[in-house]
Amino acid sequence: MGAPSHLPKPAWESPRVILLMAPFFLTLLLFLVIPAISNLYWSFFSGPSVAPLSDFQPSHNYFDIVADASFWSSLLKGLFYGSLGAILQIGLGLLFALAFQRYEAYRITIYIPALFLIAIPPAAYVAGVRILFDSTDGLLSGVSQELFGTNFSLLASHRVLLLGSIITATQYFPISYLLFAEGIRQIPASLTNQAELDNLTYGQKLIVLILPSIFMSIIAALLIRFAITFGKFDTLYFLAGSSAMYQQVETTPLFVFNEGYQKGSLGRGFAASNLLLCLFLTSIIAFSNRAECLKRHFKRLAAKRLLCRSRIVVPAALSTFVRWTSLAVFILLTAGPFILFLGSSISPNFPRTYGGFSLESYHLLFGDYSFGSAVSESIVISTISAFAAVICAMPVVFVLRFYSFPSRNLVNLVFAIAYLVPSVVWVFASRSLYGGMDYIHETIRVSACLMGFVSPLAVLYSRAAERSVLFPDVAQCTREAISATRFFFSVYISGYRTSFGLAFIFCFSAVWADYLYSSLLGAPELRTGIIAFQEILHGAVVPWGVLMAAAVVICMPVALVLLIYLLATHKRFDNA
Fold first, then answer.
1. 170 near 122, Cβ under 8 Å?
2. Helix 69-99 × helix 215-230 angle, to 10°
3. Strand, coil or helix: what is 136?
4. CB within 8 A of 396, min separation 6: which ones?
């Protein structure tokens, strides 16, 4: 039951590799590459909209964007938002991983709340923050008024970008925590035993053993989380997208959205999205070329700065205090949003007044706001997109695990580009080609485009999860003369069903929380759950009880899917 080796070349020929990877790359071609080319073409047309009668001026839009001070201002805001958000995410994840490393017996119990945070769409998270810090009705703003005589609100215009960074960090830190916790858990037992024999204190083990062991994971996670946070659209848009504070949070993805959609200047929007794409492509390629050099440099840095016989002594009382405080904060961050949503939804006038337990908010939600049909539409789109993405990803993960081929690094680079480039780029690319195809049903059109967007995610999540799953010995299967087709369907898929199930959940949650594809590609009658939620959140008057009831409802489908997965795989979850 060891790690499988590459399958013998004479048995399974290389043309089979092309056949297995063809569906995935066809998906990327149809929904990422060809739309991106179309995006480039339409960026050469100027005017208030893109139409056959628009002026063909190849460089006009690009010169306008480059000369626009707001574009560079949005870039600086994005760098601040991405940097601070990534640092906070990594810091929280590392803090909890170090604090909980002694709770090995309760590891799965701690992991589960972290996983359940993916069930909360950013729109709902922002709604929870707004009900806490709203200047008029906010719970914490009211407490500040009572205690200090001043209404302190993080929703003030000069703090809103900082608040967005904090929201992003508190929602996505579990990803870093799970990575670091597994890295610490996989430190070789021989090194841990040697540290015990040397009577090293906790501070010494931290500097001599733990931090050097996960140093490269910290650096890699910091860079990846920066790229992903920089490209995020939804959190900042839902926080201040339809208010006077929009300029304060207008990072580059929001600038692209504003130019191409809200102002109706599609040519400028296409040009701005192409500039953003070039920026990310240049950064990813430059980093990939320097990755090995940076890796060696970081290892030397770790050896010089961290691998030393430090005499730092952490008092036992301080260590215990940090662990219990960290556990309390962790529970607050993971369970707090669900408690807030549920508690605030049982009274329609909450937080102004509390009239006792009532389901009136839910009656209003499914009656006056027709929320049920929107949620049903989201379930259909999310299921179709996630299922199709995982089906396309299965043979790709299979090939990457069992085959060696010359272009392997190029394939990994394609995954990185498709995953790290901001989604607003792919949305505008898809809009330029598929947005006008009204003869295709909007549900099918949006589902197909979203499948192209989340297919790289399905590959990456599957590859990350399948590394810890025990797998039948490939050599034994080869000796038994099992054909490649039979091996793939009867052995491989069965052996990795836990990993593919987890990838489906992550893809489902990504599609479920999507606002851009549904709003920009769908017909006006396409109303998904997030679009309906956004209408309530950005309405002229915010009914807080109804909004919190909507938050509970849009969290339930992903939470139920995750719960079903955990119950079905509880015996194998420890390996997933």
1. no
2. 140
3. coil
4. 20, 21, 24, 459
Residue type, 544: W
Count Cα neighbours of 350 within 13 Å in the Cβ-side half-sphere: 26
DSSP-derived secondary structure letter, 569: T
Alpha carbons 391 and 500: distance in angstroms, whole number? 9
In the block, which residue shows the tokens 């460089």?
59
DSSP 8: P
Give me the chain's average pLDDT, please: 79
> How many Å is the maximal CA-CA distance in the chain?
79
What are the distances in angstroms from CA 28 to CA 275, 433, 465?
Answer: 20, 14, 22
Angstrom distance (rounded) from CA 446 to CA 430: 9
Q: Which residues contact 84 (CB under 8 A, 6 or more apart)?
A: 162, 165, 169
Count of Cβ atoms closer than 10 Å to residue 167 Cβ? 21
pTM: 0.84
What end-to-end distance do the CA atoms of the chain give, in Å? 16
Nearest alpha carbon to residue 27 among 396, 504, 278: 396
Cis peptide leading into residue 351 (ω within 30°):
yes
- pLDDT, tens digit, 9 for 90 and up, residues 234-290: 899 988 876 778 888 889 999 998 888 878 788 888 888 989 888 888 887 777 666
Expressed in percent and rounded to 5, the helix, strand and coil fractions of the chain are 75, 0, 25
Gap between the Cα atoms of 177 and 314, Å rounded:
22
Q: Stretch 302-316: mean pLDDT, rounded?
A: 56
Distance CA 297, CA 357 (A): 60
- Determine if residue 528 is left, alpha or beta; phi over 0 gives left, psi from -120 to 50 gives alpha, anything else beta: beta
Name the one residue in this structure whose structure tokens are 């998906």: 27
Instruction: Give bridge partners of residue 56 from the DSSP assignment.
Output: 45
pLDDT, residue 530, reads 92
- Rounded Cα distance between 490 and 65, Å, is 54
Q: What would the two tokens of residue 246 be?
A: 């929009």
Token couple for 53: 């009668």
Residue 16: C-alpha distances to residues 405, 495, 562 (Å): 12, 21, 34
* Alpha-helical runs (H) found in 14-158: 15-28, 34-42, 60-67, 69-99, 107-116, 122-133, 139-148
At a CB cut-off of 8 Å and minimum separation 6, what does 105 contact?
none
SS3 (DSSP) at 45: strand
Does the pLDDT value for residue 405 go beyond 50?
yes
Distance CA 169, CA 545 (A): 26
Helix (H) or strand (E) holding 247: none
Instruction: Give the mean model confidence (pLDDT) for residues 7-20.
Output: 58
User: Mean of the pLDDT values across residues 386-413?
Assistant: 80
Burial class (CB in 10 A: 0-12, 13-18, 19+), 220: middle
H/E element, 46: strand 45-46
What is the DSSP annotation of 330-392?
HHHHHHHHHHHHHHHHSSTTTTT----S--HHHHHHHHTT-HHHHHHHHHHHHHHHHHHHHHH
Structure confidence at residue 89 (pLDDT): 93
d(CA 85, CA 165): 5
Structure-token pair, residue 261: 């959609």
